[in-house]
Design goal:
four-stranded antiparallel beta sheet
Length: 192
């Protein structure tokens, strides 16, 4: 390993000088606004590239969750965070305030993947609920959701999702299965 490799990385300590099981991370388009999530812990945001951090409590209480996946829009103002076997939360003010979202109704799910477009209006989330897992999209920042069935009326353990800059082109991957793409925000399917 070259000494220059060591200089290109800087350790940051969102939760202080302790080791944690970090589960998720996302960045805005220039790396200044960051969000990270802990397994059985909290969310933390930074607006200065990781130099300083603020603990966030989407649940509104002093409670820990397994923050499986997070995403950010291009400027870090619109965030989405998903709790394992829990709920989805969105923020439109850099993580200061959060709103609980319920794509599948008043149920907890194994939200395993999430993606956002550039302005946080178009979102996609994936439930890794084994054979019953589904995809959901929103075109209004998480206020309303549409269940998507790329492979028909079958559920799959969705592992990963991604979105382009305006939420038109989506991709979703199944654990031990196939890859699906959409070129119209999730309305139509194609399999790779």
């Amino acid at each position: 390993m070259c000494s220059s490799d060591l200089l290109s990385w800087i350790e940051v300590q969102p939760a202080g000088d302790v080791n944690r099981s970090w589960r998720s991370a996302a960045s805005d388009s220039d790396g200044s606004n960051l969000i990270v999530g802990i397994d059985t812990g909290r969310l933390y945001t930074s607006s200065d590239g990781g130099e300083n951090w603020i603990e966030r409590q989407p649940l509104g209480v002093d409670a820990n969750k397994n923050w499986d996946t997070v995403a950010s829009d291009s400027d870090g103002s619109n965030l989405i965070a998903c709790a394992e076997a829990g709920r989805i939360y969105t923020s439109s003010d850099n993580g200061e305030n959060w709103v609980e979202r319920r794509p599948a109704g008043d149920f907890d799910f194994g939200w395993y993947a999430v993606a956002s477009d550039n302005d946080g209006s178009n979102l996609i989330v994936a439930d890794a609920g084994g054979a019953g897992g589904r995809l959901y999209t929103s075109d209004d920042g998480g206020a309303n959701w549409t269940e998507r069935r790329p492979s028909g009326d079958f559920g799959y353990p969705w592992q990963s999702v991604a979105s382009d800059n305006d939420g038109t082109n989506l991709i979703a991957c199944v654990i031990g299965g196939r890859v699906y793409t959409s070129d119209n925000g999730g309305d139509r399917k194609s399999v790779v």
